[in-house]
Amino acid sequence: MSTPAYTELFQRHQRLHRLGHLQSIAQWDQSANMPPKGNEARSLALAEMGGLLHQLATEPQLKSLLEQAAAENLEADQRANLREMGRAWRASNALPQSLVEAKSLANSRCEHAWRAQRQANDWAGYVENLREVVRLTREEATLLADGTGLSRYDALLDLYEPGMRSAEVDRVFGDLRSWLPALIRQVREKQAQETVIRPVGPFTQAAQKALGLDAMRLMGFDFEAGRLDESSHPFCGGVPEDVRMTTRYREDDFLPSLMGTIHETGHGRYEQNLPREWLGQPLGQARSMGLHESQSLSFEMQLGSHPAFARLLSPLVSRHLGEQPAFEPGNLNRLLTRVNPGFIRVDADEVTYPAHVILRYEIERPLVEGEIEVEDIPALWDAKMMELLGLDTRGNYKDGCMQDVHWGCGLIGYFPCYTLGAMYAAQWFATMRRAMPDLDARIAAGDLAPVFDWLRENIWLQGSRYETPELVRRASGETLNPAHFKAHLQSRYLG
Amino acid sequence: MSTPAYTELFQRHQRLHRLGHLQSIAQWDQSANMPPKGNEARSLALAEMGGLLHQLATEPQLKSLLEQAAAENLEADQRANLREMGRAWRASNALPQSLVEAKSLANSRCEHAWRAQRQANDWAGYVENLREVVRLTREEATLLADGTGLSRYDALLDLYEPGMRSAEVDRVFGDLRSWLPALIRQVREKQAQETVIRPVGPFTQAAQKALGLDAMRLMGFDFEAGRLDESSHPFCGGVPEDVRMTTRYREDDFLPSLMGTIHETGHGRYEQNLPREWLGQPLGQARSMGLHESQSLSFEMQLGSHPAFARLLSPLVSRHLGEQPAFEPGNLNRLLTRVNPGFIRVDADEVTYPAHVILRYEIERPLVEGEIEVEDIPALWDAKMMELLGLDTRGNYKDGCMQDVHWGCGLIGYFPCYTLGAMYAAQWFATMRRAMPDLDARIAAGDLAPVFDWLRENIWLQGSRYETPELVRRASGETLNPAHFKAHLQSRYLG
Ligand SMILES: [Zn+2]
Ligand SMILES: [Zn+2]
């Protein structure tokens, strides 16, 4: 079958993948290894590459190649790949190269400065860089929205969760808002009766790292195709062939790093198990940010905070950190399911986490739409933290609106994905339990293979073959249904 | 002053520098971090970037831009930069793509087979591949020599040491040859009387790494602009703004890693101190391979094996590896200056090392010129090893002419740089001592700043502003003079 236009597009995407590989590794290195004086040159190099990739993704021939390929005789997967090529093309061609380069430079600068500024609680310094990032992000959103009828915010949201709209987020988050504060109160009352033994530190970084590596092995991470390092903001980067996970360590508490590592392992295994024969092509990529988060939360929350899972984790903890009463499985699970409203999103428990996301969504949406300005963020943050979690963050930028670097990196429209992911994850496990009624017994017996097999088959190996709603329907038999998340929280925390 | 062509060239070189930055970091990562399953994707990514950089360096407009810029009104540094742009352009454009590809194929075939062939002492197998590499290297040399009036060998030598000619190498190596074998005998006789205490291992990798980092601090490495990691083949990579040094550790002996680290620190500081305002341009690059080696050998040999330096090193060694009689300064210096003719170049001491290089030069020059053929190598090797070092290598290809992979990789014309570097280093220190008669006392007092200041001013900050002979003359007041190297060896080893 002769498919010259499709074949040409296929080769161009291989090339983008190869050059993007160097960019991904250099970005990981920037966070995990790079000394401070390397930052300016690195930012310029990444901006240059960003511009080059944008140039390759916007070459004029692509439009007619996509049109010609649509008329070629393609197999189903090729046609799906072509659909994703078109999606990538539309995303890339909305923005002029000058904007792509300016964004890359502004984001790198803002992120780099943030490291020291956050330590110094220096909002005044940070806002100077953030203002420019937001200005460019609004410009990007306007161009993305042009001609689609989408609002500026929806145009950004669509980049991370194709097909998702703020109206839908409003509905789902509105539902959450209607029962979450009450649920938090109920859980807090129930847990007030419980005795929980705190682990006694300090825990050396070396011991925590060894524990984290063992947890990654338990979760099936392939160390021949990836590694674990440290960075101030943990992430899962690199390329599917070589996944670069990072974490950070606190000597006084090992759980944030341990559970963060298990979380990133979920991202990492998704990447490591994408369809190999499609790597380098749009079809070979992870479906969406929300889907990605559904994997990390399947690992961290659905499995990691499962009462039976604590029996698998407990011996690992004792092996690396010594014997302590706190490490007993029942207590370990109580520690992991302790609900405690706090300042920091990444340290938040499963129940209060959605409140952090709702808060950010309620700030970033009007921020992009131009209804508020960066100067308004702290006051809004303070008000919403008090309203949703009853916490006072006034003057505490470090643990308030400067805790995340997302906005400083121009990553706006992304936060909802965390809670969408939590909902998808609850839906996956509800589906698994229908198919395997003994699932919880198998987890208790240390047999995690059924979970990994289900995820590999239904999510990982699907790549971007289907659009999100279709993937969700094929995997679980229905579209996104927040009832599963509610049932999960009620069963785990009030059951 | 309007200089449109020069400005255009300037911007194109900035772009090459930025993209090359990502390539350098990814290459470093491949050696220092990358898990095995990442290799195929990484190799494809680096090859893609290599092709892209070659394409950018051979764009047809460059020729006329260079011609136009030559007629523009440029300042002295700009003109020097343009001269170096021209050099880079000629190197990239001398060879047709077909030859570049044939060379790359032949080199990797030869190198790959060499790994097993060397183990098996299989000269007959190796020579089959080497013949093709030499044939293509002669073809390359012919094209590089075309129209320059250079001989084929000189055309290759000029790639690594701009301005150096084999007539000059003949002169300095001829001088060296006239006194080196006798000097080696004298030193051996003198050292036969000495008692040297061997260090007692094992030495943990962690302790050796901490020692190496302290040695780098002593040598002034800027850890805000670089780092030290591990790889199986130590090198100094990265970019001037972010130098990535590597070393490897042997638990039974700490000196190879320690002195290797000090050696690479010399390369690293050269890169870190290139003229900042010219970074990204050819003028901002290190001058040559020989000059680079003159920095690593200034650190490793001129300073590192200086009797007074042992008094600075000894407390560092004891701090990290514990107290041992072997670590006493006098003994440490005897260990570092032990002369012992051996088969292997990379294990050779300061005094016998030049013999290994002279031998290779005396074979590779006539080989490229077509005066001998690959079949003649073993007999020449055997004769010269006996003549220069009194060692019998007959039939021992593994530790003889198959020990280095340089020729098999098509790297011919490079070997002289090692000993030119040693000679330059001796010349720098002779110059410093004329200007600062108390230099050795200052080294003994731990004051290394005068050395670093001199190197920074005379070598590092000069970048590629001058061709090598001119740089040498400006730095030391004369052209390369082997008498300084002779005086250095006599003073250190027979004094
Ligand atoms: Zn995540
Ligand atoms: Zn070197």
Automatic annotation (TrEMBL), chains A, B:
Pfam families, alphabetized: Peptidase_M32
Gene Ontology annotations of biological process type: proteolysis
Free-text remark on how the cofactor is bound: Binds 1 zinc ion per subunit.
InterPro entries: Peptidase_M32_Taq
Active site location: E264 (proton donor/acceptor)
Reported cofactor(s): Zn(2+)
Catalytic activity, reaction form: Release of a C-terminal amino acid with broad specificity, except for -Pro
Binding-site residues, Zn(2+): H263, H267, E293
Keywords in alphabetical order: Carboxypeptidase, Hydrolase, Metal-binding, Metalloprotease, Protease, Zinc
Highest rank taxon of the organism: Bacteria
Keyword check for Metal-binding: yes
Keyword Cytoplasm: no
Database matches in Gene3D superfamilies: 1.10.1370.30
EC number: 3.4.17.19
GO MF term set: metallocarboxypeptidase activity; zinc ion binding
Coiled-coil ranges per UniProt: none
Family of this protein: Belongs to the peptidase M32 family.
Function: Broad specificity carboxypetidase that releases amino acids sequentially from the C-terminus, including neutral, aromatic, polar and basic residues.
UniProt-recorded name of the protein: Metal-dependent carboxypeptidase
